[in-house]
Amino acid sequence: MTLQHTISRCNTLQHTATHCNTLQHTISRCNTLFHTVSHCNTLQHTATLCNTMQHIAAAHCNTLQHTATHCNTLQHTATHSNALQHTAAHCSTLQHTAAHCSTLQHAATHCNSLKHTAATLLQHSATQFKTLTWWEAEPRPLEHAATHCNTLQHTATHSLRGRRNQDVQQLP
Hints:
By secondary structure, the chain is mainly α. It has helices at about 5-130, 140-170. The chain has a domain at about 115-170.
């Protein structure tokens, strides 16, 4: 082998070595690019998952807001229900009072009738008394009945007023 031939081979080897270095550098860059692409794919996958999670979170938030609205409505309804129950209890009391009022009014009407009857009988008895001796006439039971009627009427009137005032004070 000649020197020129050896130099030519050396030049070829150097040229090949340069190509090898370039290829190695290119391969290194390709590996970096593949690694970067892999990271990009991971990031895109993560971004997709984030979008999905945001969509799910938004749907859950809307559901929770809707549920909260229902809860507020139910609390409002429960408040009205309590007020209605309280009012219903007062209505029962008022109905009971009304029944007593009717009974007392009925008694007062009977008392008025009895008073009228007693007054008529007393007048009749007084007329008869003038013709009888004092031991034969006994109008006192009728006077006694009239007094009881007056007492009943007085009690009924005051009971009605007192009960109405008490019922009014208990109303919500």
